[in-house]
Fold this protein.
Amino acid sequence: MHPTLLASLAMRYDSRALRTGERVGAVLFVTALTAVAAQISMPLPFTPVPFTFQPMVVLVGAAALGARLGMTSQILYLALGIAGLPVFAASPSLPQGAARLFGPTGGYLMAYPFAAFVAGWLAERGFDRRYLTAVLAMAGGLAVIFAGGVLWLTLAGQPTGGLAGALRIGFTPFIAADLVKLLLAAGVMPSLWWLTGCRVR
């Protein structure tokens, strides 16, 4: 197993393992970035699911933190949203709060912790250190997000017309743009490894 970027930086500058305060601060930072990314959303007329930059923040943040801390950051994000804080993307029909998890975007939101775990787990095995393997790590996490979103739209009584309808409104409109975002996001972690001077193995 490889140390994450966060752990590598901690060991480089402190000559010690990652401390609790540093873990907490990093988790809070990624949680806050996820909430900020939710506010940059674009409603689309042909689907109840808005276009946001959250998935890329979830995946890059998890790659930097690792599986457990990345997953924790997204569990905290959902907990803040359930508590009623305005951290979810704007919706014309659903208020902030727990009800949002039962709406059309609920499956995507609930998939964030699992997607973060996948991306973080792969990063802990060195996938985030080179571009092509970083693409694979990001693709794995993105697949989890889409699977959660489409499955929820299919099974949770949304008026989509079954799996075909769920794919039509929850996958097809987003996949091209998300692949472009993924290819850009995959370059973030190798670049950070290089910029911070941490050794790539």
User: Anything to note?
Assistant: The domain at 5-196 is CATH 1.10.1760.20 (Arp2/3 complex 21 kDa subunit ARPC3). The beta strands are 41-44, 47-52. The first strand starts at residue 41 and ends at 44. The mean pLDDT is 89.
